[in-house]
Amino acid sequence: MALLFDTxxxxxxxxxxxxxxxxxxxWYVANTTTPTDTYTTPALNVANTNPVLADADGxxxxxxxxxxxxxxxxxxxxxxxxxxxxTVDNFNVPDTPPSFDPDLNAFLAGSEPLPIAKGGTxxxxxxxxxxxxxxxxxxGGTVTGNIIRSTKGVHHYWETAAMxxxxxxxTPAADPDPTTLPGQVWAKY
Length: 189
Known about the structure:
It is built from 2 helices and 8 strands. The protein has 189 residues and is mainly beta.
């Protein structure tokens, strides 16, 4: 299984906030100074140069790694491994992808709640999970403070089982509260 080390999303920035064009990333066998290959594709059939060079945006190209243990050394454009900006040794790429607990896979697929014993709330919806975590009262009580959803608008809903009645009222600021039943919402303008 190949691992994508760098997707080219991040630029190397110098101490004076300048883009470090031509920064170098040297690759070695772990715990040695023996150079090793990295690749341009997940098929691991086209080797990168060693060192891999950052482009005009200070970004490295895709760096694909075969399973094994690596050491990499990041240097400035004019630097060398003897004067590194950063060195990481024993960087491991496993032979197999990580495995997940079947309960977690089902939860991530949206087909099952995550059991409490596995760190979940045993809830099948975000609302029920928030209630299970104590964010909202099950019945009665109040929620105080501001709930803000930036730039995406507001979506209102209620479940019939949780409310006796539901309704929205938008009234002028001077009008009295028109709500009389649980589940009704009143907004002034």
